[in-house]
## 1
Amino acid sequence: MKRPKRPKCPKLVMVLWLDAVGDRNDDDGAGKPLLPVPCLSVGWCIEDKQTHIKLASELISGGEYQEVTVIPRGMVKAIAAKPFKLPAEFREWASD
C-alpha cells in the first residue's frame, strides 16, 4: 500500500485512520468480530514524522498549540490538506 503524502506543517488537514479495538470479555459484543474502527480527525498538522503525525485542534499566536492528537503512521489511510493562509501573527509557524 502506498503511504499518504506528508503535508508541510502547519497545515489544516483531515486524516483518515484506523483505530485499535479491544475486547473486555463482557457479553455486549458476543459473536461480533473485532475490527479496527475507521476515524476521521481534523486539525493543524504540527509535526509529521516517518512514525507518526501530530495534530493540534488549536494554534495560538507565539508558536503555541493545544489539544494534541498523535496518530501512528501505520494506522493512517489518507491525508487531505486544506490550503489556508495563516494570519501574520501565526507566520512564525510556516518554517517549511
## 2
Amino acid sequence: MPHHIELIMSGFGDWKYTADRDATISAYGRTECGGGDTCDCANCRNFRVARTRVFPDKFLTLLDQLGIDPLKDAEVYHNASRQAVMTMVDGTTA
C-alpha cells in the first residue's frame, strides 16, 4: 500500500516552504540523540543546558509545525570567541 504523503505549505517570515511533517517526525524518531549529546566538551555541555532556554517561541512553533525535534540538533560546534568571557556556539537542526 503506497504511503500517503501530506505536504504542508506554509511560511515563516519571508520564507515559503513545503514539508512532509509525518516523514520528518518518523526520521527524528529513528534518531537517538542530537549531535550536542554525543560530545562532553564544555561547549557542548553548555549548549545542552542553553538550548531549552534560548530558542524563541516562534521558532519552536515553526520546528513543531515541521515535525523537527529541537533537542536533536544535527551539529554543534565552537564558532568563535568575541571576548575573553563570551563564546559563540552554533547548534544546527537538520
